């Protein structure tokens, strides 16, 4: 399963990632970084499309895609 990491100190809470995510897995977290911005967080269900990372103006999102066909 793919996953998203939000770099909280870079996030400015613009929510562009929330609006862009086709899977709807990003949302405001209720936590604030040192700059006072509410940071985003991700639920399960990321498809690894990376639309959120491409849209983020602050490069605050890292996307880790799962490898298809890999065994644990």
Quick structural overview:
The chain is of the alpha+beta class and 72 residues long.
Structure in words:
The protein is of the alpha+beta class and 72 residues long. The protein contains two helices and four strands; from the N terminus they run βαββαβ. Strand 2 and strand 3 (38-42) form a beta hairpin. The protein starts with a strand and ends in an 8-residue tail after the last strand.
According to CATH, what is the class? Alpha Beta
Q: Can you list the strand order of the major beta sheet?
A: 1-4
CATH architecture: 2-Layer Sandwich
The ordered H/E elements are EHEEHE
Please work out how many helical segments DSSP would assign. Answer: 2
Q: For the CA atoms, what is the radius of gyration?
A: 12 Å
Main beta-sheet strand count, sense and barrel state? 2 strands, antiparallel
Number of domains: 1
How many strands? 4
Q: Could you tell me how far the N terminus lies from the C terminus, measured between alpha carbons in angstroms? A: 12 Å
Topology:
Layout: E1 3-6, H1 16-20, E2 26-32, E3 38-42, H2 51-55, E4 61-64
Antiparallel strand pairs: 1-4, 2-3
List the main descriptive attributes of the protein structure presented here:
two-stranded antiparallel ribbon, alpha+beta, two-stranded antiparallel sheet, Alpha-Beta Plaits, 2 helices, 72 residues, elongated
